[in-house]
Amino acid sequence: MQCRMSMEADVKGIGGMLPPLLFQKYFGGKQIVRMYKGKGCPVCHGTGYEGRLGIFEVMTMDENIRKAILEKKDSPEIQKIAIENGMTTMMEDGIRKVLEGLTTIEEVLRVTKE
Ligand SMILES: [Zn+2]
């Protein structure tokens, strides 16, 4: 985004917003992280975002997941198995994009709540 500005964010303020496992993985042991924020300009119509960023959930089908689906397990259970097998959740993909400066944590929280 054109109006992107970097800022330092206090990790403590992020803690309460994320699932503990993800927080630990990406922010554990850190105190300050560099994040980016759009100030708002004509290009982004004052929103600070350039279009709608794609945040994706990546699930690799494997034997355990196939079995869980065949056994008609409910979706939280299937998701748990998928995460144990290395699935990237939307939230995690979003956090990676925040750290790459592609979006903000507020945007990730908004999108993952939908
Ligand atoms: Zn802008």
From TrEMBL:
<comment type="similarity">
    <text>Belongs to the GSP E family.</text>
</comment>
<feature type="domain" description="Bacterial type II secretion system protein E">
    <location>
        <begin position="33"/>
        <end position="110"/>
    </location>
</feature>
<keyword id="KW-0547">Nucleotide-binding</keyword>
<dbReference type="InterPro" id="IPR001482">
    <property type="entry name" value="T2SS/T4SS_dom"/>
</dbReference>
<protein>
    <submittedName>
        <fullName>General secretion pathway protein E</fullName>
    </submittedName>
</protein>
<dbReference type="GO" id="GO:0005524">
    <property type="term" value="F:ATP binding"/>
</dbReference>
<keyword id="KW-0067">ATP-binding</keyword>
<dbReference type="InterPro" id="IPR027417">
    <property type="entry name" value="P-loop_NTPase"/>
</dbReference>
<dbReference type="Pfam" id="PF00437">
    <property type="entry name" value="T2SSE"/>
</dbReference>
<dbReference type="GO" id="GO:0005886">
    <property type="term" value="C:plasma membrane"/>
</dbReference>
<dbReference type="GO" id="GO:0016887">
    <property type="term" value="F:ATP hydrolysis activity"/>
</dbReference>
